[in-house]
Amino acid sequence: MSASQAAPPERLTLDHQPNREGPWRLQAPAHHPKDEACGFEVLDDFERFNQANDIYTRGQWDPRIRSEKVINWFKGMFKPGLGARAAEGYTARDFALRNAGWMGANLTIQRSLSEGRVDGFLDYIRPYSAPSPDRVESVSPEETSEEVKRVSRLFGADAVGITHYDPRWHYTNSFSTKALAEKPAAIPEGLPHVIVIVTAMHYEAVKCYPSATAGIAVGHGYSRDCELVQSIATYILNLGYRAVACVNDTSLAIPYAIQAGLGEYGRNGLLITKDFGPRVRIGRIHTDLPLVHDQPIRFGVREFCATTCRRCADACPPKAISHGAPTEKVPSQSMMIGIRKWQVDPERCFKFWVNQATECGICMRVCPYNKDTSRWWSRGYYRFWRRLAASPLKRLALRLDFALGFGARMKPAEFWRRFRTR
Ligand code: SF4
Ligand code: SF4
After folding, report:
1. Is ligand 1 within 6 A of the CB of residue 318?
2. 278 alpha carbon to ligand 2 midpoint, in Å?
3. Which of 253, 260, 342, 394 could link 267 by a cystine bridge, Cβ 3.0 to 4.6 Å?
4. Strand 243-246, strand 280-287: pairing
5. Averaged pLDDT for residues 149-169
6. How far apart are the first and last CA of the chain?
7. Is the pTM of this model over 0.85?
């Protein structure tokens, strides 16, 4: 569900598959005591992921993925009108809204593009300054953790959790758009804590998937995240501690968010948060500020996806989401090796995105955990529904959700009408 914003190279010089042997294998234990609480099934043959294998990165170098359509898909983020057509939700106005949403993220990316870096998407966001030499001593890790969470919310985070650095989720390699080659991916050493923040995406925009109109939810989500993680990192740097901000780069956001107690893993391959379901973006700040760690949470998602719901798999147009049980079998090199989980085929998914000339989020829209929680009555209903979904009455919960029309698509024309009359 993420899109690298790198300006696409005009030529292809790579035709290899990044190596999966030797240096890519994890040099540390594949298991962690918190895994069970997180719902992780990490196997002995676990391998860290190489970001050059990420489907969006492969769109830059792999001739099996890269095509004229893929090049235009990337270019469309920057070139006004590219991909626009006379279809509701895909007009020049819809693409204009989507591309405008990306501007905050683009400013972060542009900062380092000439050096072959793509800050926030392929490379961590380089800190704007060194830590203050006059360190503000923290009272206690507990109080500092509460304070950093309050500061994160002040800047716009919708939920915050803290966990430990976990090398398993860090990419072995990243990709240089300048050299069109892999390069080692690592954050500076000695940062034992990870602050994970989530921000909710626009509910009505997400309801418009599939369409370019809905793309505002993704682009603006990334833009907010880029600003937010840099603000939190800057706060910590000013206190005299080290802080490195990440968005899509450096490591896998979802396992970190689960470890930090922000949600569970769903059949649709997304983080399902308690308050916003899968309708979130995730950012991280690695730091040596003394902090305490949160515990993973469970509120019934795994059981609901496993026993009752298939809505995301049924709704996915290219059938990229599995109807079956979690498995370690992976049909694509863009998937992780050595984790038993619900698999989502990124090649099928991305092909659908490219054919739309914009991204998709149908599996986010239809998920029953995706509810509008901005009003008291809808918040109340969602709390009730969540309890029902976690009880033996799971089928009733799913039927109720259908009967009340949740998950249905909003026509982009209706989105614009509401937008204009507010
Ligand atoms: S193509 Fe399928 S998996 Fe991909 S975003 Fe759309 S619904 Fe989700
Ligand atoms: S749509 Fe249903 S099966 Fe898919 S992630 Fe959401 S709850 Fe799980």
Report:
1. yes
2. 9
3. 342
4. antiparallel
5. 97
6. 29
7. yes
pLDDT in tens, 179-210: 888 888 878 889 999 999 999 999 999 999 99
Report the separation in Å between the CA atom of 344 and the middle of ligand 1, taken as the mean of its atom positions.
8
- Does residue 12 register a pLDDT over 60? no
Kindly tell me the sign of the dihedral angle through the C-alpha atoms of 211, 200, 403, 305: positive
* Distance in angstroms (rounded) separating the CA atoms of residues 116 and 122: 10
Dihedral sign from CA coordinates of 25, 246, 213, 8: negative
Task: Report how far residue 200's alpha carbon sits from residue 277's, in angstroms, rounded to the nearest whole number.
Answer: 9
Encoding tokens for residue 89? 């939700």
Going by alpha carbons, the residue nearest to atom 6 of ligand 2 is 367
Is the minimum distance from the CB of 352 to ligand 1 under 6 angstroms? Answer: yes
Give the residue, by CA position, lying nearest to ligand 1 atom 4: 349
Does any ligand 1 atom lie closer than 6 A to the CB of residue 316? yes
Q: Determine the residue of 298, 310, 322, 386 to mutate for testing ligand 2's pocket, defined as the one with the most ligand atoms within 8 A of the Cβ atom.
A: 310
Ligand 1: residue of 56, 279, 349, 351 to mutate (most ligand atoms within 8 A of CB) is: 349
- Ligand 1 atom, smallest distance to 344 CA: 3
pLDDT band at 397 (very low <50, low <70, confident <90, very high): very high
Question: Is 321 close to ligand 1, i.e. is its CB under 6 Å away?
Answer: yes
